Amino acid sequence: MNSPIAKLFGQTAMYGLPSIIGRLLNYLLVPLYTAIFAKPADYGVLSDLYAYVAFLVVLLPLGMETAYFRFIQNNDNTERIFNGSFVPVVLVNGGFFLLLYLTNPWIAKWMLYKEHTEYIILIGSIVCIDAITSLPLAKLRAENNSKRFMVIQLSSILLNIQLNLLLLLFYFDPSRPEEGILFILIANLISSGLKLFMVYDIISKVKFVFDWALIKQMLLYSWPLVIAGFAGIINETLDRVLLKQILYNPDIPNSLELATAQVGIYSACYKLAMLV
């Protein structure tokens, strides 16, 4: 019996499994990170950077995956709907990355990483690639191409895990913690790039025509969802961003390291508490 409930459970298992596996494996990386970094402040830097990533992951796709699913329900021209959702995401992310590239010294200074502007470029690249690939992955879901969807997602997750283990266990020098942070970010960037490569055939068929009437309708539908998602991320993640900014006092020696160490300790405990 092919009931709607059975179909719902089947799709939930198919499309939710990569996310569950990804979260589990990334959780298992926490003991590795806390073991290889000599100081809590080093893990704190990583936690702080990924807190900012969480905000951008919600904002930069513009909520267009959900809008795409909604609009294809009442429109037979699914390619037009896909183009209408994909083009603004590419334009916004292209503009965002260009702005990030031009202003990254100021952004790095504000984030208290003025000596490591490369962190800003790397996290910007990661979130832009993930935002762009979110639409082709949504298209695979809409077409019930669950096998390819799972292969892409799991390939990216497993590559990220393998690169983390390889780079951190065999090439990382504990006396240079910034190198370990770069290795982790580069591993994430490469795994995101793999997704982009694996959906290139879908992207290559996109017609970059700016259908303003359709895009306007889709944005009007998606923006309330983005705001709601942003509110959720604020509740979940803002504490790690604020903790460092509140504890840091430029007039106190080593204040930045102490503040970042508290972020690292708090974030590691937060990860453990997630099991509860």
Helix content bin: over 70%
Give the low-confidence spans.
none
- Beta-strand fraction estimate: under 5%
Q: SSE order, as H and E? A: HHHHHHHHHH
Total strands: 0
Mean pLDDT: 90
User: C-alpha Rg, in Å?
Assistant: 20 Å
User: Alpha-carbon distance between the termini?
Assistant: 37 Å
Q: Which overall shape is indicated by the principal axes computed on the Cα atoms?
A: globular
- Biggest pleated-sheet summary: none
* Class by SSE composition: mainly alpha
- Compute the number of helices: 10
Would you give an account of this structure?
This protein has 10 helices and no strands. It has 276 residues and is mainly α.
Task: Offer a concise description of the structure.
The chain is mostly helical and 276 residues long. Helix content is 82%, strand content 0%.
